[in-house]
């Protein structure tokens, strides 16, 4: 039995923090897991920046409300779900993701939670578990599933390398060159074909 594990941001939807950076004009928000392997360090810096600039969940959700999935993402997901089960494994947060999940037809999503004050200030975050993507893949394997994974960033490498097959998708050159052993694709058609071959 197979199950597909996909990253969300950079694979199915644009990077939320990059879009937020564009809206606020604050370049530091554009730093993502493509640039910073240490997720805790990245999130603590984001939370500090939000506090420094008096920004909170409301402003981020306003940006997300205007975002759309990447062109072809919904169709790609629909095709995948015709042939096997699919789970989105993301280090984002339910408070961010749900409007985008609606536009993707509500695929199954495993992500994390934010701590938010009554005033809307983001004060912290809670991960589901340590190394959440790799841990989830291992848990699925323990239930009898063979996993096939795809993502674009440093935090996707664990689940890709732990799976029976794994692919980079729309990854930056720095990650592709550091992992020449992984096949890398730029279009949904290419990724779908690669997945079909290993099912």
Number of helical stretches of at least 4 residues: 9
- Name the shape in a single word: globular
Helix content: 40-55%
Give the tally of β-strands: 7
Structural class: alpha/beta
Mean pLDDT: 97
Poorly predicted runs of 5 or more residues: none
> CATH class of the domain at 2-12 and 69-112 and 128-198, please?
Alpha Beta
Biggest sheet: strand arrangement: 4-3-2-1-5-6-7
Strand content: 15-25%
Short account of what is shown:
The chain is an alpha/beta fold. Helices cover 44% and strands 21% of the residues.
List the topology elements.
Elements: E1 2-6, H1 16-24, H2 39-53, H3 57-65, H4 73-83, E2 85-93, H5 94-103, E3 108-116, E4 122-126, H6 132-142, E5 146-151, H7 157-162, E6 165-169, H8 173-178, E7 183-185, H9 188-198
Parallel strand pairs: 1-2, 1-5, 2-3, 5-6, 6-7
Antiparallel strand pairs: 3-4
What do you see in this structure?
- The chain is of the alpha/beta class.
- It has a domain at 2-12 and 69-112 and 128-198: Rossmann fold, CATH 3.40.50.
- Helices cover 44% and strands 21% of the residues.
- The protein has helices spanning 16-24, 39-53, 57-65, 73-83, 94-103, 132-142, 157-162, 173-178, 188-198, and strands at residues 2-6, 85-93, 108-116, 122-126, 146-151, 165-169, 183-185.
- It has a seven-stranded mixed beta sheet, with helices on both faces.
- The longest helix has 15 residues, at 39-53.
- The model has no long low-confidence stretch (mean pLDDT 97).
